Amino acid sequence: MPRTAWLELDLDALRGNLAVVRRIVGPGVLVQPVVKADAYGHGMVPIARVLAEAGADALCVAAFDEAVALRDAGISSRLIVLYPIPPERAVEAAQREIAVAAGEPGLVEALIARVGAADERLPDLELELEVETGLGRGGFAPAAIASVARRVSVAPGIRLAGLWTHLQATEDAERSADQLARFETATTMLRDAGVPVPPRHVAASGGVLTDVAPYEGIRPGLALYGILPDELDPARLRADVVARFRPVMSLRAQPVRVADLPAGHGVSYGPTFTTQRPSRIATLPLGYGDGYPRSLSNRAQALVRGRRVPLVGNIAMDALMADVTDVPGPPVTIADEFTLLGAQDGDRIPAEELARLRTTNTWEVVTGMSGRLPRVYHAASGPVGLRTLTSRGG
């Protein structure tokens, strides 16, 4: 590897989490994992490839170029872009068999116009209509769905392929019930208008874990990566289900220097930490340029030899420091491995812990991991792939 800081991605855990989700929703439900934002920082192409091989029915992304990158990487699964695309990319979406979403009438008309004016024979552009049920972010009002669907049904080159919405607060059963009622209204209006109801999907990870109706499909994201949505209280979920999910991502590093500093020595910029005694300080080669933020300075911990040690001094763009003075046994050296996210020797630093310290959510913790961190993909058989800035193997 080009550096001694890296992410490890457990592909067996990923496959196992997909299997857990399938068992929760039961047979006949389309499982459509979300791999947007570089698969939540895990590496979109390698993760998508494994999910497709493990039987995912489709893959969801947020941006059109994410879908293009998957196609260019040879991913043949059905792809759904959940955020509106520029209309001028409609023909390319049809050519590449990428389903697109819309929740605004002007966009639908623009998509229809683009594919209708194409000077070549194309596969039908698959269109997924979003319903505004309460999130306040996108989608058609339920009362407008029937007229839009009828317009699509008579337009050449475009086909209604899905109906969906997104829940605002899955931990709030009453709010979710209100949203589902509005979604049912949209479904009823389609049927009353004589428009066949396409496959519907509502539940993301939070919905799956709180038993929201799966309809014909689900869009699991965070749970597939072995992390429970922050807003859910684990005590209110089925313990046997929660226990089956396994985190996929770990962040590890080896020091580039371990030095004995005298009392009164400042550490890093500022300094915001000064040694109060003779101290052994290990410098790890990662920082906020890698997605390990400055806000964790003097707050977070790392694991070395299974023991927690404090991070001291301001986290820099490319370096952070750990006080290893109290680690028992022989002095810590550059040969020791540190864990900043994940498990080591019976202890674990979970994404939830880092999120609390940063006053953010777990989604931001994992998606914030920089592309310059090497990603090592492994399974029970050992390492199976490596992604760095200069190599995309695996």
What does this structure look like?
With 394 residues, the protein is of the alpha/beta class. Helices cover 29% and strands 23% of the residues. Helix 7 (142-154) packs parallel to helix 8 (173-192). It is elongated. The two termini are 14 Å apart. The model has no long low-confidence stretch (mean pLDDT 96).
Q: How many E strands? A: 21
Taking the alpha carbons of the first and last residues, their distance comes to 14 Å
β content, as a range? 15-25%
Regarding quaternary structure, what we see is single chain
The shape, in one word, is elongated
Overall mean pLDDT score?
96
Major sheet details: 11 strands, mixed
Radius of gyration: 24 Å
Given as residue ranges, the uncertain stretches (5+ residues, pLDDT < 50) are none
Q: What's the tally of helices? A: 12
Structural class: alpha/beta
Helix content: 25-40%
SSE arrangement:
Elements lengths: L4 E6 H15 L4 E2 L4 H5 L3 H10 L5 E3 L2 H9 L6 E3 L8 H6 L2 E5 L2 H12 L8 E6 L11 H13 L3 E7 L8 H20 L7 E2 L3 H5 L7 E2 L20 H4 L6 E5 L3 E5 L4 E2 L5 E2 L4 E6 L16 E4 L2 E6 L7 E4 L14 E7 L2 E3 L1 H8 L3 H6 L7 E5 L2 E6 L7
Parallel strand pairs: 1-20, 2-9, 3-4, 4-5, 5-6, 6-7, 7-8
Antiparallel strand pairs: 1-10, 10-18, 11-14, 12-13, 14-17, 15-16, 15-18, 16-17, 18-19, 20-21
Helix pairs in contact: 7-8
